[in-house]
Design brief:
Rossmann fold; seven-stranded parallel β-sheet; binds NADP nicotinamide-adenine-dinucleotide phosphate; NADP; NmrA-like; oxidoreductase activity; NAD(P)-bd_dom_sf
């Protein structure tokens, strides 16, 4: 644990989403480092348990609502930071315009604070990569627009893309569903052999951000493609069965069926197109548009976990209740 507030020579890293999956992983990885860091985490509610836990671990927790209507406070929140980790949360509001404007605001605020580098959690421009074929994967395209803005900002800028969270299987029943016969399925509209970069976010994502921050020279302009293990959908189901002892099969469904499972969970119809097209894009181009994940994994402070290791350590009791 090398989080400090006393050593003023330690770089101050401002972390957006500190109480969430991505920011939490970044803080975990920096805390594991033998290099000291000062960490400032942002939250809208400093009294919540996750914020209090971080505070006890030495993170300076700052209450701020990171929205354009609150520009002045957002700028103040970044003051004094040496580096910034930025992420937007599309799924909280599912509004691309809002995601893009807030992403740009975060870049502007970090720039105004004079940071030496921004690490941004982006995704690829699906519309561009697919030559205009897939136009609805807005939570990729929105983040890609923010990436373009960041790269043009003049601040050293690195894009650390998040793969497909292994924890999606624990959190969202549309990804791992009980069947009528009592067995379980991954009912996805993707080919069984399509390989997905699965990332154990909590344990592994932050390692990539730490790698960026600990390079002798901040690797301006680069992009990292995170993955704990690249694995096909059918192999995921096989390993999940093996580890949990439950019968889990991969079941290829139509895009409409896949999207409907989300609508049943209360997702708005506005994201139907995105949910249908995202797996079509994965099938045709791959999550990372064909970019390999191995070079990004090189030089991480510790090895990433395999999917089986994640599955062995996860609590599946709620999923298989
Ligand atoms: N699931 C996947 O497989 C996957 C893959 C790639 C990318 N992603 C992307 O990951 C993003 C979500 O990141 P995550 O998983 O880390 O989210 P998360 O665990 O739900 O956490 C969201 C974080 O954002 C903070 N936040 C949200 N709105 C805020 C605001 N207005 N002001 C201040 N803080 C705010 C929250 O802080 P407080 O609540 O404490 O204020 C929280 O710390 C999404 O954009 C999604 O597209 C997901």
């Amino acid at each position: 644990m090398t989080i400090t507030q006393q050593v003023t020579s330690a770089p101050l890293v401002a972390v957006v989403g500190a109480t969430g999956v991505q920011g939490g992983s970044v803080i975990k990885a920096l805390a594991e480092s033998d290099k000291p860091y000062r960490i400032r985490g942002f939250t809208r509610d400093v009294t919540k348990a996750a914020a209090q836990t971080l505070k006890k671990r030495g993170v300076e927790m700052v209450t701020v609502n990171l929205v354009v209507e609150n520009k002045e406070e957002v700028y103040k929140a970044f003051a004094g930071a040496d580096y910034a980790f930025l992420v937007t949360n599309f799924w909280e509001h599912m509004n691309t315009e809002k995601e893009v404007s807030e992403g740009k605001l975060l870049i502007d605020a970090a720039k105004a604070a004079g940071v030496k580098g921004i690490v941004w959690s982006g995704l690829l421009p699906v519309k561009k990569i697919s030559g205009g074929k897939y136009t609805k994967v807005v939570y990729f395209d929105g983040k890609a627009a923010v990436t373009d803005y960041g790269r043009a900002s003049g601040v050293p800028f690195v894009d650390v893309q998040a793969g497909w969270y292994t924890s999606n299987l624990l959190a969202i029943p549309a990804f791992l569903a009980k069947q009528l016969d009592g067995t379980y399925a991954l009912p996805w509209s993707i080919r069984p052999t399509t390989v997905v970069p699965m990332i154990d976010m909590e344990n592994d994502y932050g390692l990539y951000v730490r790698k960026v921050l600990e390079q002798p020279v901040f690797p301006d302009g680069s992009a990292l493609y995170t993955s704990s293990e690249d694995i096909s959908a059918e192999e995921l189901a096989r390993q999940l069965s093996e580890v949990t002892g439950k019968k889990v099969v991969f079941k290829q469904v139509t895009g409409e069926e896949f999207a409907n499972a989300f609508l049943t969970l209360g997702y708005p119809a506005t994201v139907t197109g995105a949910l249908i097209e995202v797996f079509q894009y994965f099938d045709e181009f791959g999550c990372y548009g064909g970019q390999p994940t191995a070079p990004s994994r090189e030089g991480l402070a510790r090895p990433t976990r395999t999917f089986a290791e994640f599955a062995e350590s996860a609590d599946w009791s709620k999923v298989f209740a």
